[in-house]
Protein 1
Amino acid sequence: MESVCKRIRDQRLHDRIVSAEEAASWIEDGMTLGLSGFTRAGDVKAVPFALAKRAEENPLKVNVFTGASLGSDVDKLFAEKNMINKRLPFQADATMRKGINAGDFHFVDQHLSHTSEWIRSNVLDTIDFAILEAIAVTEEGMVIPTTSIGNSMVFSQHAKNIIIEINTAQTELLEGIHDLYEPGPQGERQPIPLSAPSDRIGVKGIQVDVDKIRGIVFTHQEDSPSTIIEPDEETVVMAQHLITFLREEIKAGRLTEKLAPLQSGIGSVANAVFHGLLDSEFTDLEVYSEVLQDAVFDLLDAGKVKFASCCSITLSSEKMKSVFSNFETYRDRLLLRPQEISNHPELIRRMGLISINTALELDIYGNVNSTHVMGTKMMNGIGGSGDFARNARLGIFVTKSIAKDGKISSIVPFVSHVDHTEHDVDVIVTEQGYADLRGLAPRERVQKIIENCAHPLYREQLNEYYQEALKKGGQTPHVLEKAFSWHTNFEKNGTMLEKAAQPV
Amino acid sequence: MESVCKRIRDQRLHDRIVSAEEAASWIEDGMTLGLSGFTRAGDVKAVPFALAKRAEENPLKVNVFTGASLGSDVDKLFAEKNMINKRLPFQADATMRKGINAGDFHFVDQHLSHTSEWIRSNVLDTIDFAILEAIAVTEEGMVIPTTSIGNSMVFSQHAKNIIIEINTAQTELLEGIHDLYEPGPQGERQPIPLSAPSDRIGVKGIQVDVDKIRGIVFTHQEDSPSTIIEPDEETVVMAQHLITFLREEIKAGRLTEKLAPLQSGIGSVANAVFHGLLDSEFTDLEVYSEVLQDAVFDLLDAGKVKFASCCSITLSSEKMKSVFSNFETYRDRLLLRPQEISNHPELIRRMGLISINTALELDIYGNVNSTHVMGTKMMNGIGGSGDFARNARLGIFVTKSIAKDGKISSIVPFVSHVDHTEHDVDVIVTEQGYADLRGLAPRERVQKIIENCAHPLYREQLNEYYQEALKKGGQTPHVLEKAFSWHTNFEKNGTMLEKAAQPV
């Protein structure tokens, strides 16, 4: 009971504690759910499972809107049980991916800063239930989120009903590190008063209409740990290229050793880059990103990063233990924000971020595919990469130059799907080197990309394509008949290599 | 002399009056010029001609940075005389287009809000001469622009030297309608304090270092008039579809009859849409756009538009006479801004603009090509369409469903160049109807686009492609071997139609 009083400080809510099963029983076929959770952190862990259990006997389908990818295998489970009508704006689960690509349900792949606008302006289906993980509900009816914020604020404000999962496995020290800012409707909005990553502009929790809280469920379960892929030889080299580029920017007087607020997508290269910063001369760094992974905490520990703003904290099992058992040492150097604020074009442009995201493939003119394998199959989604790359001071894309032991070149004549156009891609980094494309016309970019970034195995083949294209002329020379021949060759012959060549 | 004193109010500058020829003589081979001018308005009219004349005897090449397209055939002349190394960020001249596509010089096609950031942060070549058209230079060394602002402010602040062209053919009543706001360097910036189109946030002219003013040239020449293409049967129908869509938005409670600040690209469809608004029930409209064309002044005259903010005023010959001879009646309902402010993501998103731009082609999933004919040949450039579509409340793209008497379908399986991705395209309008794509997954979009927007001549062929693609599966089904077959068919056979069909 002491725990209940600490966690549910509004006494009127004490009689709303229910089991996950009861809460799940309120959800009907065809409803729309707004779930907390962003890259496996701060997701709800009980009601979705109870709902999936119920669906075994009483099949139902729901729309599932989230912050980003969910942890606890919820996406997997919902896909397996065929419980989804529509899913947005991002996912990263293998089973769900399979369902999306089979056309079993609809997936809307959205810029992560955009979903909130559609909810707020009533473009999407009305949310029947917002289901949010929380540390506590305060006396004032404020819901204190846990390790992510995502779209929880806009979901709960616009939902008909709210279900709270109080997760007692999440440290209570998280209370106070959230900064909830509501921009208001478009057209009635004031400037967002944030000009540095450490600026606090909102309140510590999500103010909800407590009458809408239908039920409160208690859970005790940690976030799904992230799988950290240790830097390998190639990602270490990529990080070195990127750091070399940043040093050149300092030499040119365009950056100082404090760089500029850093954003990085998740994954092994980002991790390697941040590890690379540990041993660099850069100092007093700031992070303004979506997700904080292990490496940012290493940088905080080393005093390299002085402040980090994010939307979610996603850690490995080991790091989770060390961070959350010493969380008081981080509390004044961290802020969690809603994803529309962490990813807001206004703020990204104002602060002039250095943005580092991963490309799936890119082409000789610098267009980037972040989402579709061989042009058709969804991988995860565009996530925040578009919010950042378009508006950042430096839109940097990283990728290994080849995949599948050299059978795939990440650099192709024409990307099979475009997520980031030539207008938004400033710098490309592979393990071969980097290409600074700023201020270059398409024909100038080609040579830099092929020579600096493509794998030697594919350079000649890329040059041949370009030489043939050049005969046709144009601002962006192409041989349309052959533009996707690398992809179709891979589909037919299992390799993009046209000629017999030594395996890499 | 009276005129000189009125126009050059800083006495120190009186001895800097020179001929255009003398000013042009300072420009050397390899230099970079920053010219005023945006969509044929407010461009410099004497020094570029003198430079071209000089180049006949002493060939030279320069980089030419502008606001957008130039008037007075300067782009044509420079292209003809082979005087260009690099041109950015936009052009719209047939001769220049030919040179670009022949690879005679480099053209960097940029979001119009981005150029200023690259100048400010020293990413591009340093500007040797900023050459600006002005009404006057004030006592305080402020340069008062004429009918456009473009990038003039950032050019002059970062140029080594400045040349002013005082154009006495431009009405002095223009003084006071400019609002020059300097955001400052990224990372040291405050929020831009603008939340409505009529907000005045800056000063009336460009504050320059008068020591950098090398010379002042007097001219007396009107802007090149725009060629107004009167609404035809199809553009009138497109405007009606768009207005129907807006009415549906009002019914759904997402808009009021005041709509939201309107942005529109230039051209015949935009013109038709604005004409359509003349007879509509919408009222108290606001415009926040790049260019004001004739139709906006008709709407101001009719009291339909209460305020218009822009970066340039581009009028037909007739309208120019009527507007500038009665300019005092418009002065309190107009503001001209630098293009980074008229096109700023921060402001477009905050105000929630309704953005209407023209597509060259679009595909069955809603990706838009705004720039490249048959994937290779540059038309004009992306202009501000990306700044607006990405950040607007409604990113609307308009196009006629067919071109060249039906030999080209504007809706294809896969666009041959991507400027706007599926993530940024909300609504498509053709003369056939409109497709509201918001909240739809790719497979849901296909039917809407084909049925509502494609020309009947091509619907079956589009469906056949999609049915074949569906067999391959995926989030975005495609048959990569055939993705560009419509374009290659057109190149070989002069039509995108696969089967013998009646001419339209």
Protein 2
Amino acid sequence: MTNKPVQSLTVKKVSEQKCFDGWHRQYSHWSETLNCEMRFAVYLPPHVDDGEDVPVLYWLSGLTCTDENFMQKAGAMRLASDLGMAIVAPDTSPRGEGVPDDPEGQYDLGLGAGFYVNATQEPWSQHYRMYDYVVEELPALVEKHFPVCEKRSISGHSMGGHGAIMIALRNPESFCSVSAFSPICHPTDCPWGHKAFGAYLGDDQSAWKAYDSVELLKRSNVSNPLPILVDQGDADGFLAEQLKPESLLQASAEKGYPLSLRMQSGYDHSYFFIASFIEDHLHFHAEHLRG
Amino acid sequence: MTNKPVQSLTVKKVSEQKCFDGWHRQYSHWSETLNCEMRFAVYLPPHVDDGEDVPVLYWLSGLTCTDENFMQKAGAMRLASDLGMAIVAPDTSPRGEGVPDDPEGQYDLGLGAGFYVNATQEPWSQHYRMYDYVVEELPALVEKHFPVCEKRSISGHSMGGHGAIMIALRNPESFCSVSAFSPICHPTDCPWGHKAFGAYLGDDQSAWKAYDSVELLKRSNVSNPLPILVDQGDADGFLAEQLKPESLLQASAEKGYPLSLRMQSGYDHSYFFIASFIEDHLHFHAEHLRG
């Protein structure tokens, strides 16, 4: 069993690189929520050196990723530096000794595939509580240790796009805006979602709806809607079977919930796609974080 | 023994992603020079769709890298797309069955560490001919298969920074400009260079000088100098022992060869550093490619 540190909400810096006059850093910490040691990455723009408290964009990555993929591949820091925006990228699942993984060794369950839910089923429930981690523990850590203000937005890719929209719709008071690249829009109606939600949440599919963006949109309050921007490549190999953006579009149309979904011709599911449009997303969030 | 294809100068596309309205692609091909199958990456800006022949920036990566590191991490494609510049990134060594590696398994010799020289010593000389590959075979392939003009520039990082400056100084008629991040400036006078050059070129250090940027600069023609831009982070852990930019600066001063060396405060040896300044390099090359 891992030794649990006495103090909670402490962080330890594990790497640091200057980037666009700001700083990319990785931190590790004991997560009370996930019951394991976790690592996350933060980009701090140069504005913090002048004593400014900056807004934060939380980025949730997709299947198989860690805190590193977005920070290394998205090309987001150039504009985040200019805009004075911090970016926080957590890992995509609990990790380490004693944390269970998919017994079949597939990439779409277990390590790297937390799906941003609170698991209720064994053997997952002791560690796989990524929803609470992203909604509560991580922002508390970030706001304790870094010069950030309370303005937050959230974005993500694929599984993390699902996580971002789902978390934002469940916590609209916590975020100024939400965006996603290639999100798994309707996990209760796709193979990835069925496998993960079945394992983490059990066979009762009514329990799945609390983590499904389409279901949440149907039940959302449209009087004060959260700005939502979604980019989806039409050459994405996962589009028809796993991602199903049309389900989100239909729910938003029926509900009258504003949603900007952009189909991008020729783009696939990769970080080359994300890099191509990340600056649009940063400008979108900056506008709402300032508002 | 690998079967050698009948046709030479053929390429096979192995991946493709749309990126900033252009295309990132990986190709494999049989290299006559290296006597093995090789992979390289190319970024083609959207201008080629309009039938335009675009100039090419060759990028040489550092130790342990493949064609992927720069394309995924440097954030270069945003501006390359705007400027109408192709980028070609070769691998850093021969690969595959029968290609020898460092018997001690270190990262600084053998696979991923070709040092852009033509090896003369056993067991390296049959495959390790990265100089000829980058100077001759790769440009011939690129100019045969892609809509590029004959305007070329060259850049690289660390071992690839050494490669870029060295190759440009030896072939000034082939390039409009050269730049480097954190180059190994004086490989005949640093541990990485001694190990690699000793293995590939043998004990006679006089043979090493043909691949040393400082030695080449001393013997260069200053009447028509090639524009050179070098960025070096002052928090780079390899700076004092391996990189030695002061040796290049001193040689350029003594010779009267113009050289722009920028020491960047707080930056290290990583791609976070490269990303921070790559656009300066692309603008620098674009200016000279247009000239």
